[in-house]
Amino acid sequence: MNRPPVLLRTLTDLRANTASWHSEGLTVGMIPTMGALHDGHLALVEEARRRVDRVVATIFVNPTQFGPKEDFTAYPRTENSDVAKLATLGVEAVFAPNAAEMYPPGHATTISLAGPALGLETDYRPHFFAGVATVVAKLLLGGFPDIAMFGEKDYQQLLVVRQMVKDLRLPTEIVALPTVREADGLALSSRNAYLSPDERRTAPKLAAALEATAAAIRSGGDVAHHLRQGFNALEAAGFRPDYLELRNAETLAQPAAVADQPLRLLAAAWLGRTRLIDNIAV
Amino acid sequence: MNRPPVLLRTLTDLRANTASWHSEGLTVGMIPTMGALHDGHLALVEEARRRVDRVVATIFVNPTQFGPKEDFTAYPRTENSDVAKLATLGVEAVFAPNAAEMYPPGHATTISLAGPALGLETDYRPHFFAGVATVVAKLLLGGFPDIAMFGEKDYQQLLVVRQMVKDLRLPTEIVALPTVREADGLALSSRNAYLSPDERRTAPKLAAALEATAAAIRSGGDVAHHLRQGFNALEAAGFRPDYLELRNAETLAQPAAVADQPLRLLAAAWLGRTRLIDNIAV
């Protein structure tokens, strides 16, 4: 039986907790989340548990990364069951602030990125990465963890966070883990809870289309043709795709040629009123 | 005779130096500058000298805070004499990176502010405060000084830096000192070096107009009228004013009423090809 995690509500308490651990010579890992925890999040917690002495998970549905017509209000909020799951994994602290703690009146600072933040998600969610970069910076600066864990499911977000940490020399190592999937291939996401039973049956076809397109690209031939085929397959399956794109896996730049570079295939597609994203290595 | 300061060229060396001081329990103060040091800068160094155990001055003409038509190329660069002045004051370290160290290829992160960064300078130098906030954050995160010194001469910049440090909870106290002036009232500025002898004789009339306008506002009556008179006085003296404005001294918001709040009078005006700024408490 693990001790329940201490529940922190303020950045001041977050910093005091981690500073106290650091003063004892203990290493600290942070898992930033928006709650509604699934096994993808828990894999991040377990890996942090293996790597550091003290683990703090953060739960904050960050308003600044949602557009005005997006699902901020509908986003699932399940703090009690989230904390129970984190307790089971022996997490020492949960930082769950409210919006006024993170953005008090007069808050005026935004961190935005070019580079990996350009294109893909940005074409459809123009304010998303400024919201993410700002809140992640505030969390990392709030606790100065030695490591922070992110999933590859949000691949562009991962690269944006890595670039920000590098540019600002934040003293935290960003650790990424592969996407956790259901048995049928669907990438775990808190937004999967929005899917109707019918949509849930269709949803794995996003991962399947990525796999088929990646296999076709690997086998050679015209990349643009393969991407068009994949896009058409998504439409035929009932998705409304925002994009299906092949990018350099480290910079997200458009690859001039397919040879000699790590590549990533990334997609975003609507299924009814739910927007799913996924990506795989090529 | 003081030991000459150690000259640091990389953020890695800056952090190693300050971390080593902190590990010995010593406090660290930083004075961020663009070089071309004058007595205003040196007053900041001397005050830091009194407050902390180790002082690091930074010298970096930050390209991102200059607009395309501004004086980045012409800005005075006098590193050797700057370092000699800092040596005289017993500064332990000078951080003088080149642009590639601060903005390596692929650098993608910008920190921008609303709040105190809106209006005044922003109306004429739209990218200025994003450049300032980003470079100051990089310097503070590069060295994690306990205090950092700024002059009130760049009053809006001071408030922008304070707001950013507050919003991001950077673990550095911002310490401000009053503007240092020539005997005739002209605020010290590295850009005063641009003035012709004729312009130099006119330049103190900027501070004089601020003083006269502040006195008029204090004596009562219509603020807008007093501001118009001050603006006209600047034009009559040969300036081309960008603005002369009365603002709340803490937020830079437009004051709805003059009573019951700290106020600041701020001005920017061109004299020939030189843009001067100044401000005073009301």
Overview of the molecule:
- Two copies of one chain form a homodimer.
- With 282 residues, chain A is an alpha/beta fold.
- Chain A has two domains: 172 residues, Rossmann fold; 92 residues, Pantoate-beta-alanine ligase, C-terminal domain (Pantoate--beta-alanine Ligase, Chain: A,domain 2, 2-Layer Sandwich), CATH 3.30.1300.
- Helices cover 39% and strands 21% of the residues of chain A.
- Chain A contains ten helices and ten strands.
- In chain A, the strands form two sheets. In chain A, strands 1-4-3-2-6-7 form a six-stranded parallel β-sheet, with helices on both faces.
- In chain A, helix 1 crosses helix 6 and helix 6 crosses helix 7.
- The radius of gyration of chain A is 19 Å and the shape is globular.
- The relative contact order of chain A is 0.13.
- The mean pLDDT of chain A is 96.
